[in-house]
Amino acid sequence: MFALASAPRFSTSTPDILNSENKVSFSLPLLNIGDATAENLKVTSITLGSATRLSPIAFPAFMGNLGASNSVPINASFVNSGLNVGGKYLITVRGTYECGGATYGFAINRSIVIPASVPVPVQLLKAHVQLAAQPGLWSYTLFNDEPLDSALFIPTFSLGIVAPVSVIGTPEGWSFLTDNATSVLWYATDTALPYQHHIAPGTSLAGFTVQSSRTASEATGFVLTGWDHQANQAKLSRPGSVLSPSRS
Amino acid sequence: MIPHSRVTSQMPRRILRTCWLAISLLAVTVVMAATANAEPITLLVNPSSLSGSVGTTLVFTGQITNQTGAPLGASDLFFNFSGFDPAVLTITQLVGDPDFILPNNTISPVVSLFSVTIGPNASAGTYAFEAFLQDINNIFSNTVAVQVSVNVAAVPEPSTLVLLTTGLTGFGTAFLKRYRYRREIRNS
User: Fold this and answer.
1) Which ipTM did the prediction report?
2) Which of B90, B92, B138 sits opposite A13 (nearest CB)?
3) pTM recorded for the entire structure
4) Do A109 and B93 touch (CB under 8 A)?
5) DSSP strand pairing (B49-53 vs B144-151)
6) Is A107 on the interface with B (CB under 8 A)?
7) By three-state DSSP, how is residue A109 classified?
């Protein structure tokens, strides 16, 4: 297989780097400096030295089509244990793209210097989502990791999807909205205090389930919102990524 | 007044000297022009074509020329690869570890640039890709076309193996019979 005369070529530019919350996160611009569109661009691995990757949580990561003279950010985070402040480590991003009907590989490299650790620039709701996957079923459990004396409860769970799904699981006291193609929004149906169905600090709630004909999973985004029961208003949120039915 | 004979003997020397100066000046200008138009970073992969069998890792070596105007750290050089068959080749940057400093207007010694691992499912053939360097200031080198030739050991067809085994067995049996016959003749 030989490279095409008119073809995508890849380079990088200076990444943004954050060392916070025991992890190093970066956003590395991937540029197409060739003269053809890199179609169906996928990232199949991201490494930072020998550090443990936290996100993306799964590969391939779908980046879409990258036209000539365009760029797309490659975002990743790694456990910062073992990454010394001031030390230089090599990022390697590998992936594939299509051009002229054929699939090609690419690999780019960029070294970064680990900056000093800083406090979290934006305060986030302490929460996470756990997935239990079976063939054709994706079931999510939401965890409110706020301290027990916190006033922050969880009233909504928004899940990005990239495949047609049917919502077949919704906990009691919750309902959902979906277009069955791009997102599912589960929400607690309480309209006034004490909002008994909100997820309390230190507790969890299971039963959020979607069904799909897809057999594979890919990482998509989610958002958990927080509601301050003392101030009786929305406060903080937690974005993240979790596996959901794959687009193909 | 200069004597005519002195004028005539010195003139060829002066002409020669003038011509030599003109040629030298021209040569310097050409060299400077060539240098000014050269890549700030020049990548030489030598050899740019290697062969290997399935499962092996090939190390490509070469030299880097720095004409960026400032010293260049090897760990501030990044390889970008594209156009290869991802099912066959895995390419890994090697340059930068160990680190070294390349002063301006300097050619590096021969160093290991990158490695290519041939995957277990590779078929025999030639696989090509492109490679170029960029530095931390986003200055690019020239692009080099690299080739990897995959050798796959020929395996005899099963029918060939059967024929070979049968032939060898027959040969051995015939030899044994003849040996025993001769021994009997000798002993009788």
Assistant:
1) 0.83
2) B138
3) 0.77
4) yes
5) parallel
6) yes
7) strand
Give the C-alpha separation, B90 to B57, whole Å: 9
Give the pLDDT of chain A (248 residues) as one tens digit per residue: 444 568 999 999 999 999 998 999 999 999 999 999 999 999 999 999 999 999 999 999 999 999 999 999 999 999 999 999 999 999 999 999 999 999 999 999 999 999 999 987 788 899 999 999 999 999 999 999 999 999 999 999 999 999 999 999 999 999 999 998 899 999 999 999 999 999 999 999 999 999 999 999 999 999 999 999 999 999 999 999 999 999 98
State whether residue A192 is helix, strand or coil.
coil
Helices and strands: H and E segment counts in chain B:
2, 11
Burial, B171: exposed, middle or buried (Cβ in 10 Å; 0-12, 13-18, 19+)? exposed
CB B94 within 8 A of CB B138: no
Spatial neighbors of A169 by CB under 8 A, at least 6 apart, are A139, A207, A208, A209, A210
Q: How many CA atoms lie within 13 A of B188 on its CB side?
A: 6
User: Is residue B68 less than 8 Å (CB to CB) from chain A?
Assistant: no
Min CA distance, B23 vs chain A (Å)? 41
A23 within 8 A of A114, measured Cβ to Cβ: no
- Give the number of beta-carbon pairs within 8 Å between A and B: 86
Beta-carbon separation of B136 and A111 below 8 A: yes
Q: Chain B contact for A69, CB < 8 A?
A: no
Phi/psi region, residue B89 (left: phi>0; alpha: psi -120 to 50; beta: rest), is beta
Helix (H/G/I), strand (E/B), else coil: B26: helix
Residues of chain A contacting residue B145, judged by C-beta atoms under 8 Å apart: 3
Q: What letter represents residue A168's amino acid? A: I
Residue from the list B85, B92, B143 with its beta carbon closest to the beta carbon of A105: B85
CA atoms within 13 A on the CB side of A44: 13
